Amino acid sequence: MTLTKSLSLRAQDAPESGIVEIINYGRDRDRLLPLWAGEGDLPTPQFIRDAAKAALDNGETFYTHQRGIPPLRAAIADYYARHFGAKLSPEHVYVTGSGMHAIKIMVEAMTEPGDEAIYFTPAWPNIAAALGVSGAQKVGVPLEFSDGRWNLDPARVEAAITDKTRMIFVNTPANPTGWTASLEDLSALLDIARRHGIWILADEIYALYHFAGGRAPSFLDIRQDGDRIVFINSFSKNWSMTGWRVGWLVAPPELGDTIENLVQYTTSGVAQFMQQGALAAIRDGDHVIAENYERARVGRDIFCDRLLATNRVETLKPDGALYAFLKVDGLTDSRKAALDIVDKTGVGLAPGSAFGPGGEPFLRACFLRNAGQLEDAAERLADYIGRL
């Protein structure tokens, strides 16, 4: 028996990321335009870095609050008041070591091994992997792709529920599709969850990247006390802090002791100097959100308009999030195509196959980047598509 075979089946079955495979294949190429990952090209703003550095200089390097430092929890509650009109107390807020960490601990809180969890496909691959590694059974409900847009049929969700279903994972605006739930969609999903007594794990990281104007509809608009909803968010996208790995969740205060214990036994909390940087971001950084939103809006138009002009791309401009999920005539094997595109164009795209059922014919590009780079990438891709 090999050493790997002596590990648990859950560990052995943890899938390789199809996105990382392409990144590793092409990361060192000359003139590469990397649109494969879900991040922009700007570093974290200086005032955020300065706050973290000042905290380091002040010796804030000791163990700290497992639930997050009180000023940061209060500032996150205020963020929801400003942007969502939601009345939350700091006791609803828990700081985590990234949005991924928040998802993982809540999956383990909401499911036992063998329980079922519903999510919508194509989907960010980490949710399916987090469910699998935790021992839950993944139940993918497909979004419908028609006339270049994605839609959800709530009846399909209800039909997927069994006596083993414990949670529904809802990512809206969605990675990779850009699907953005309407208030009617959210109401239907919440009604289903209430009827069946199951949890909703709401990933609303892209809520402020909503191109119809204003932020996207949220479960916060319709929730009532006692609803089984936990919200996931992160500092990564809004404030250009992907590498910091700081996130948070919003949950009923009665879950506080359980969440604190799960934090304790996974990361034991987020470094205090990092939390001070996060505090500066969320307290003083609404202008950064606005600037990143505008970069994404302009980037979406530049990139999508050029590729739609080829008349070979079916996907329309997404309603939200940071991604163009492209269905190109003549391409069916997205992994093979992504590798070929790196070789022939120097543009890095994520293969749709990495996003599970329904994603195979698509390619994902992140448009939170410099306009000039996106113009260059779109021209290279348009030329490639024209040669197919």
Automatic annotation (TrEMBL):
Which biological process, per GO, is one annotated for this protein? amino acid metabolic process
For this protein, the record's SUPFAM superfamilies field holds: PLP-dependent transferases
EC number from the UniProt entry: 2.6.1.-
What cofactor is this protein dependent on? pyridoxal 5'-phosphate
Q: Where are the transmembrane segments?
A: none
Transferase is among the record's keywords: yes
Tell me the InterPro entries matching this sequence.
Aminotransferase_I/II_large, AspAT/PAT-like, NHTrfase_class1_PyrdxlP-BS, PyrdxlP-dep_Trfase, PyrdxlP-dep_Trfase_major, PyrdxlP-dep_Trfase_small
Which residue windows are coiled coil?
Answer: none
Q: Which reaction does it catalyse?
A: L-aspartate + 2-oxoglutarate = oxaloacetate + L-glutamate
Q: Name one GO molecular function term.
A: L-aspartate:2-oxoglutarate aminotransferase activity
Query: Superkingdom, according to UniProt?
Result: Bacteria
Family (UniProt): Belongs to the class-I pyridoxal-phosphate-dependent aminotransferase family.
Please name the PANTHER family in this protein's record.
AMINOTRANSFERASE, ASPARTATE AMINOTRANSFERASE
Instruction: List the NCBIfam families hit by this protein, alphabetically.
Output: PRK06108.1
**Record protein name field:** Aminotransferase
Native organism: Martelella radicis
Q: What is the lineage of its organism?
A: Bacteria, Pseudomonadati, Pseudomonadota, Alphaproteobacteria, Hyphomicrobiales
